[in-house]
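Human: Not sure, check this?
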Amino acid sequence: MDLYHLKTFFFLAKVKNFTKAASLLFVTQSAVSHAIKKLEASVDTPLFKRKGKNLSLTDAGHTLFASCEKIFYEIERADQDIARFKKEAKVRIRIGSTVEFGTSILIKHIKDFLDAHPDILLDFLFSHHLETPLVQDEVDLIIDCKEHLLPNLEKIYLFQEQYITIASPAFVREHKIRSVEGLEKINILSNDKHLKWWQNFITAIPEKKKSCLKNVVQINHIRGIINGAISGLGIGFVPKYTVLRELEEKILIDPFPWIKPGADHFNIFIKKEKLAFKKNKSLVDYLSLLKPSEFGVD
């Protein structure tokens, strides 16, 4: 089997799209197609099932893909091991994170790591959809509060994320909000129309009071929810670490301090083969040793 054909197969198997594979490999789509045909001819068995534009792996394809993961991750690790013998060599880590955590917390706490590892460069991907980039090796690891049950993943616990309801003091006074029932006639600022964003709050209140959350205003960004609450547009629900300054300065208050919403758990997710890379292990160890209080969370 030709190594170039195997690499082409490996990329195509991850993204399952000829155009995207060609883009990642910096070749034409026809070159990808030709390489796959050559590889299937050499092994004398189909590696992909083709149904219209949809691609999926055959049983033989799955077997070969598992072997390719080991081969190409070992080549990547060898390349990084050799890089340390070069003068001023740099290795790169691509890290994915949820948007608010990445922009407000991760960026603020990563400089010490980079100062201790001048040979490492970091690229950041901030997104609420991190599983596909992880599967397709567009990032080396992700930090996420969602669960990822993919095979061959390591999960490293980081911290528990606490949520809080927020409103301006003037808004609370104006609407005389003293109980959950007070939510019935005011705007609920949510990341989505169906209040999935508020689920940790909803599960913490009695069943008969859940119907009070009626007037939903969708704002699809946490900072927008925060600014909406400050401006008196309604009551928001956000991770507590995102509003520590506003709470300390009394720009925002928690209208329901007696309600303890459910918490999410932030974890690092990384493929086991990737965790074997020295550069990735160094970053995982650094992030794991940071105390939750340094993130401004419990």
Q: What stands out?
A: The chain has three domains: 3-83, 91-159+264-295, 163-248.
